Amino acid sequence: MKRKANVSSDVAPSNTQRDLSPGTGGVTTTSGAISGATSGANSGATSGTTSDDINLQNPPPPCSNPLVTPLLTDMYQLSMGLAYYRASTHQKSSTFELFFRKPPFSGEFCVFAGLDQVMSHLQNFKFSESQLLYIKELLPEADEAFINYLRNLSCSSLTVTSVLPGSLVFPRVPLITVSGPLGLCQLLETTLLTLINYPTLIATNATRFRLASGPSPTLLEFGLRRAQGPDGGYSASKYAILGGFDGTSNVTAGWMERGLKVSGTMAHSYVMSFSGWDGYCGDRAFADKAKEIRDKERAGTNEGELRAFIEYAQCFPNGFLALIDTYDTLGGVYNFCCVAVAMGMNGLKPVGVRLDSGDLAYLSRECRRIFDLFKATYPSLTFWDGLQVVASNDINEGVLVALGKQDHCITAYGIGTNLVTCQAQPALGCVYKLVEVEGEPRIKLSQDIEKVLIPGRKQCYRLIGSDGSPLLDLMQMEDETPPTPGARILARHPFEEQKRCFVTPTLVVPLTTVVWKDGRSQIPYPTIEGGRMRRKKEVEACREDHLRAHNPTPYKVSVSDGLYKFLHRIWLEEAPVVELS
Ligand SMILES: Nc1ncnc2c1ncn2[C@@H]1O[C@H](COP(=O)(O)OP(=O)(O)OP(=O)(O)O)[C@@H](O)[C@H]1O
Ligand SMILES: O=P(O)(O)OC[C@H]1O[C@H](OP(=O)(O)OP(=O)(O)O)[C@H](O)[C@@H]1O
Ligand SMILES: O=C(O)c1cccnc1
Ligand SMILES: [Mg+2]
Prior knowledge:
Mean pLDDT: 91
Bound molecules: adenosine-5'-triphosphate, 1-O-pyrophosphono-5-O-phosphono-alpha-D-ribofuranose, nicotinic acid, magnesium ion
Low-confidence stretches: 5-54
C-alpha cells in the first residue's frame, strides 16, 4: 500500500513465520506460505504454480462444483431464451457487462476473483439430454426446434474479456464483458454472477482482514464449519488465500488445490477427553519429566490438560501446538511450557499455543511473559523466542484493527465465521447488463442515478501516476484513441458535470484482457497463487487512503469526454419529457 506521499507496509507475510501443521515441525515458511509442504506437490492447472507454467493449449478443466452447468440459472433466462428464439433475435450480436455499483464493507474497492470457474464453465457449457427433457417439462411452450437450438449451444461464438484475478477493481468498471449472440449471452447471466459474486466478496474480505492485521501475522482460514454449505466453505478457503490468507483448515480445499497449505491445531474436546493418568501407555520418563517440572514451576495446573499435552507432544514431536484455554488459560500456558521443557530436553522443539477466548491481547502478553520466565530458567533451550501464539474466537476486521492498536504478542490468527460468511456484508451486488445490440448502444434509465447504465462497448484503462500509484480508472468508447503516457486528457465523472479533472498519466494499463475467443481460452488457466501475487502487487501500489478500513477516499472511476457526451446525449434521447397540465 502506498501512503499519499510514499510507500509503506507490505502485505506479504513475513518469512519468519512458522508452519502450524502437525507433523511439519514448525518449519519456517516462505513469503507466500503456500509451500505445499503439508498438502503434497503441486499438480496440474489448479495448483499453486504461477500462471506462466501452464500450457495454453490445455483447455480449462471442468468446474470444481458439478452443479455448475447451463441449468444453474434462473427460470427467466430460459423463458427469455425461448422468447428471443421465437422473435428470431437470439442470433443478434450483443454485449453484456458484469460489474458492481457499490463496493462492499463500506470500502472503495474489490479484489476480483472467480474467473477460473468462469473459464471452466465457458469451456464445458453444454446442456445434457436429461436437462433438455426437464426444460421441455418446465417450458411446455418450447418446441423441438428450440430444444435443438439449446442442444447445439456452446460458447464457441463468444468473445469474453475480463480483468484478471487478484486485480483491485472499482465500481462500474466492467469486470467481464461478454459479446456474442443475444440468446446465449443472456443464458450466461445468472451463472456468471454466481461464479463471480461470492469469490470476489470473499477475496475482498480476506484482503481487508490482511490489511487490518498487517503483513506479519500468519492468517489461517478456519471457517468450513460455519460456511454457507460445502461449496461456500470450499470457495471461501480458496479465495481467502487469494486475498492474503496463508493457509486453511479445510482439507478438501488442500486436496482440490494442491498448492494450498492446510494446517490446524487441536480442539477443546481433545483436551477435555483426558482426566487423569489411567491407561497411560506413553513414554513414562517423558511424562514424569513434564510433571516434575510442572510441580516445580506451578503446582496444581489441570492434570487432564497436562496429560492431553503430553500425549499430543508424543504423537506430533515436531508439531506440538497446544490449545490452552480449556480450564484456565494461565495454567494452560504453564502446562504447555512444562511439556515444552521436557521436549527440549529430548532435543525437540514445540510450536506454540492457541488462545480461543478472553482478552486476546492481554493473554498473548501473558503467554510471552511466561515463555520469558521459562527462558530465564531454561536458557539452554533455544525455542522460547520463536514460539507461536495463535489467537482465535470470533475475530473480525474490527477486532484485528483494535488489536493492532494494543500491545499484543499474537503471531497468528485462526479466523472462521466472520471471514467466510462475510458477516459485515453477506452479498456483493455484481450485475450483468446489456449495453449493446447489433452495434447499437443500449441504455437503462433509472430514478436512481447510480443505476443508470453507461451504454456501449468500452475500453477501460488504469492511469498510473508518477509515484506508481493508480490515479483513476478511465472508461471510453471502443473506437476512441487510447490515452497515452505523458499526454494530458480530460477525465469526467460519468454523472456529475462539475466533477472532472485533467490527468497526465505516467503509465496507461489496459484493465481487461481477451480471455475467451474462437471457442477456446486465450489465457493460462487462472491459479490462486497467480491471483494472490497480482493482489499483493496491486495493493502495494495503491494509495493507502483508498484502502483504509474507515472512511476511505473515493477512487475516481471516470469516463472520457467523448463517452460523457455520448452517454448524456443518449440519456436525453431516451428519457421521456413529461407533460404537465
Ligand atoms: N483485546 C481485544 N481487543 C478487541 N477485541 C478483542 C480482544 N480480545 C478479544 N476480543 C474479541 O472480543 C470478542 C469476545 O467475545 P466473547 O466475550 O463472546 O468471548 P469470550 O467470553 O472471551 O469467550 P467464549 O465466550 O468463547 O468463551 C471476540 O470477538 C474476540 O475476538
Ligand atoms: O470463531 P471463528 O472465527 O468462527 O473461528 C473458528 C472457531 O471454531 C472453533 O470453535 P468451535 O466450533 O469449537 O466453537 P466455539 O469456539 O464457539 O465453542 C475454534 O475454536 C474457533 O473458535
Ligand atoms: O485447527 C484449528 O485449530 C481449528 C480449525 C477449525 C476451526 N477451529 C479451529
Ligand atoms: Mg470459538
